[in-house]
Amino acid sequence: MANELRGKKVAILIAPKGTEQVEFTRPKQAMENAGAQVDIIGVEKGQVRAYNHDVELGDTFTVDKSFDDVSARDYDAVVVPGGTVGADKLRGNKAAVRFVRGFFEQGKPVGAICHGPWILVEADVVDGRQVTSYPSLQTDIRNAGGKWVDREVVVDQGLVTSRKPDDLDAFCAKIVEEFAEGVHEGQSVRI
Predict the structure, then answer these.
(1) Per the confidence metrics, is the pTM higher than 0.90?
(2) Which of 120, 137, 139, 156 has the fewest Cβ atoms nearer than 10 Å?
């Protein structure tokens, strides 16, 4: 995984409070190891604290750009980490939802893990897709028209989803693979 993503620019999201640290750091490191330029995108620029297991304070990270400063056109792919609180905050932010939806409108690859698929439901992009997530999201995904499956990693036309931190090895390998492939035919959603 040395150069598969060389020349690719990838966004990784972080919530103002509550992003699960390992679901943020491991994919970020995998993409950087594969040669991608990775920007941290959040609600506003500045310092953001990640969390471990939703309740324990984690490390602090610097947000490179806010959702107001970027567009899906600026990136080749996006990763949405989980964390119950963080994922809920992101799906409640209109600019974050609009940003993620833009990747689907342009057919660009997307990775989401654990509670991260909540923003996909909010962006109205799971209809007709096979998706996995943390099990408590399965009803939300089904109600949004998606087909929820209980597997370590699921790929559906450039959308890569996984259930939990235990799935990170498979998730990281698949996002690198899918992001290297680039735009996927048939992935875009109706506007």
Answers:
(1) yes
(2) 139
Q: CB atoms < 10 A from the CB of 63, how many?
A: 20
**Type of residue found at 8:** K
- Identify whether the C-beta of residue 85 lies closer than 8 Å to the C-beta of residue 57: no
d(CA 170, CA 173): 5
Q: Domains of the chain, with CATH numbers?
A: 9-180 (3.40.50.880)
Catalytic residue numbers read 114-115
Q: Which two tokens stand for residue 142?
A: 């089904």
Q: Which residues share a beta bridge with 154?
A: 161
- Rounded Cα gap, residues 119 and 93, in angstroms: 9
Q: Can you read off the two tokens belonging to residue 25? A: 């750091």
**pLDDT tens-digit readout, 112-169:** 999 999 999 999 999 999 999 999 999 999 999 999 999 999 999 999 999 999 999 9
